[in-house]
């Protein structure tokens, strides 16, 4: 039985009337667009089903403009308590929802996860259905596969959303593989104007983000292990953007920590050369153990990952460096 048939049959067995598609904190284009396309697919099978996209922890800036352009409706105050079934979209752990976690765990609704990150064991065990494909470059790729399984064509707006989500999570296809480009090509054939879509969420950065990047450069600590140059820094916002900038400037791998409202966040980025030659998967090998060591949670992709935890900035960066020293092969 295909994944989409399993999902639909499960919803029928639960006699579901209201399904909530829940996205992670600061929801990005992959999460929102995957939820939107899944919403449309479920409605094809179950027209009377109420399907809501929820982002209780907010939406990131580029995606706000994107969902306005695509007329995607997202609830910032989803009714978790009334849901018959809850999908966790593009997230591998409850901890990506912060204070919403207690409401989620108190719900009697069965949980289903659709994601392309390495799953948290605890979350995987709690969920009634897990559709996780770590080989997919984006969760939108997984949703597109569900459409293919069902032999249902995507609408133009769904095609635009899926294309945008994939483009966002692959850094405009820099991280894509053959499946990514095949799917992108099929979405273009469905009517997507690739150039228009890429421009639609490539907004100029504001001064606060520029300052964060510059401060990360000013505060950077450079460590050399073998042939690899590692950059460690800290800022008060835009950690992911700052980490990417340090890699763009020449570091093979970068970790940038920040603290907001007492909560510690660390973003990790590396280039493909570092990933392939060291064999280090930032999500599995660095972020996940970092999260455990720091009393929080971590995860992500091979070349882009993050940690939400407790403690000081210095301690977080030191733990990151210790793990890197353990994982980097001596002859790498």
Describe it.
The chain has 14 helices and eleven strands. With 332 residues, it is α/β, with parallel strands linked by helices. α2 packs parallel to α6. The longest helix is centred in the N-terminal third of the chain and has 17 residues. The relative contact order is 0.10. The mean pLDDT is 91.
List keywords for this structure.
46% helix; 332 residues; 11 strands; five-stranded parallel sheet; 14 helices; six-stranded mixed sheet; alpha/beta
Which helices and strands occur, and which strands form pairs?
Blueprint: H1 3-13, E1 18-23, H2 29-45, E2 50-54, H3 61-70, E3 85-89, H4 101-106, E4 111-115, H5 121-126, E5 129-132, H6 139-150, H7 156-169, H8 178-189, H9 194-200, H10 207-218, E6 221-225, E7 228-234, H11 239-249, E8 253-260, E9 263-270, H12 272-278, H13 282-293, E10 297-300, E11 304-309, H14 313-327
Report the sheet with the most strands, covering strand number, pairing sense and barrel closure. 6 strands, mixed
SSE-based structural type: alpha/beta
Approximately what portion of the residues adopt beta-strand conformation?
Answer: 15-25%
Evaluate the radius of gyration.
Answer: 20 Å
Mean pLDDT: 91
What's the arrangement of strands in the largest beta sheet?
Answer: 6-7-8-9-11-10
* Count of extended strands: 11
